[in-house]
Amino acid sequence: MDVKRQELIDGLNEDLAHELGAIHQYIYNASTVSGLARLTLKDFFLTEAQDEMLHAQYLAEKIATLGGDPILTAPPVQITHDVKGMLQITLQAEVDTIARYIKRMEQAEALQEIELKLKLEDMIANETNHKEEIERLLEDPRL
After folding, report:
1. Which among 2, 83, 108, 126 is least surrounded, fewest beta carbons within 10 Å?
2. Which ranges of the chain have pLDDT less than 70?
3. What is the distance between the alpha carbons of residues 62 and 94, in angstroms, rounded to a whole number?
4. pTM for the model
5. Dihedral (CA of 106, 109, 110, 116) sign
6. Which residue in 69, 63, 59, 56 sits closest to 22, CA to CA?
7. Each residue of 111-120: b (16+ CB within 10 Å) or e?
8. Helix 38-65, helix 3-32: angle, nearest 10
9. Angle subtended by helix axes 38-65 and 114-138, to nearest 10
């Protein structure tokens, strides 16, 4: 297999691991968020987990299509019971994901994997929306 294609597959597996980690983090957050924030953040976290599940499924299938094996391991959940901490952890994960997807988009374009490039653009837009929503939530002075 071409070295550049293998680098793309390896990168997509890294992205897949982080998407799986995000799913776990969001489920953890949804199940442990407490206080008045629970009324809105539980559903917010569960909706985000569903979005990340779609990303993970796409990545796993694309890895297989490109000739790789999807690796279904995830980084550990960061444990916190502090609402602001949950949002900060989530925000950093979104920022990191956007940076990885930009790199992956460049790799896909270099290999003329146009469908992957376009899908990554959509995923970047989705993750950017997540990031912006979390930034707005963090503006709440009660946190």
Report:
1. 2
2. none
3. 21
4. 0.94
5. positive
6. 56
7. bebeebbebb
8. 160
9. 160
